[in-house]
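Researcher: Sequence of site-specific DNA-methyltransferase (adenine-specific) follows. Predict its structure.
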Amino acid sequence: MAAEQKQKLEQQLWNIANTLRGKMDADDFRDYILGFIFYKYLSTKMDLYANTILQPDGLTFQEIEGHAEEAALLEEIKQLALDKLGYFLLPSELFSELARRGNAGGKNNFILGDLSKVLTHIEQSTMGSESEEDFGNLFSDLDLTSHKLGKSESDKNELIVKVLVHLDEIDFDLENTDSDVLGDAYEYLIGQFASGAGKKAGEFYTPQQVSSILAQLVTVGKDQLKSVYDPTCGSGSLLLRVAKEVKNVSAFYGQEMNPTTYNLCRMNMIMHDVHYKRFDIKNEDTLERPQHYDMRFEAIVANPPFSANWSASPLHMTDERFSAYGKLAPSSKADFAFVQHMVHQLDDYGTMAIVLPHGVLFRGAAEGHIRQYLIKEKNYLDAIIGLPANIFYGTSIPTCILVLKKKRENPNDILFIDASQHYEKVKTQNVLRTEDIDKIISTYKLYVSHPELVEGQNKYSHLAPLSEIETNDYNLNIPRYVDTFEEEDTIDLQAITAELRELAAQSKTTDATIAEFCIELGIETPF
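Model: Prediction complete. Tokens:
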């Protein structure tokens, strides 16, 4: 039933999103539709919570207006809501009320001014409270004055009212606390926008198939986590995916440089009912200005921008994240800088998993030096998993996952998995199937618990002793370790000779038949 409900809700929301599709590009209508869904979510939560408080008084939140104790009741609800929900809305500011006013009498009544004030007030209601940072500027990307919504103010208003009215007709079923149908539907929409956003999609979304692998890798043997961290958290999909793999995550931490994506991440957290006190998402450049520098995390996951530019400033050589290595990642390829940052933040008994381009496995110079230090001096590298090409939005390059631990179960070996040929082609994209993901995870679990059994998976995995890594001069290119060579079938020359003789005999018979026909017809034979 939940699956059917989820699918229905996803389709309803996507249909409403398409009312904006013809008006603007994917990035813009993504920001509007997700912002309005979020506003309705906050409004519904506020209404439900206030009704619970007012139940002993025999009142509902929308019946407060005009009550003899209206001011006192609103102040009490506000204080309780700021602690419980992190924000406050007046009854007149509820989503349903704005939608009703905009469509009262079936007319296009002007509400843009009121809507803008409500969105601003949601943010202002948190000022001075513990949730101020978590709700600040959340709606900054919803520009209700943008010409993209329409040429005239009336056109803009008509479009917004249409979207609000359609959304108001959908039941988000927030009373059902056992279900996260809305959160999953919100994640579905983010994924839909990502699939049509081309190269830019990688800035805010990790495909769920990859998120699932990373999340399962860092939760092997655990049913709860004290903390999970993503230094390039995008829309937060990876952090939330980790939460699905365990019974409980006490706290979520992340950092995101893009302000729009940072807003999307915070919305996504709240939409999945993660209380504002349980997440700490920062808007800053992770490599240049890390915001959780002194903290250590039990699980770390990341899909950083591949081979991004960074400063590689010599000043970083005094930074604990990089100083021990003696080298910085090159300015044109920040891949290992992210690895070094994550290692610094990793708890002694934690696990980290990061997706990177294949080049990190074999490129030389500073990257080769850092790679050797991680293996020879620290012995943190636990596993390398080769993924198929063309599974990420906006890039077709093959990628790999590095798993690192400071306290490894098998300190004398490194696991190599070649999953590059295990996928299904769907249109122009390669997709990891459930069985492909399960094979990766089961192989890694086997390595953790019974490493001696891993070698039985021919042409898929290999347990490489550290001595073998050293022999290969710390080059980790997967084909050096996992033999995927397919032997060709043995050719039976005697059988082929016999077949050729038979064909020759058949040819002579055919030639003779043709010659007889030619004689009967009185024409020359063609040979």
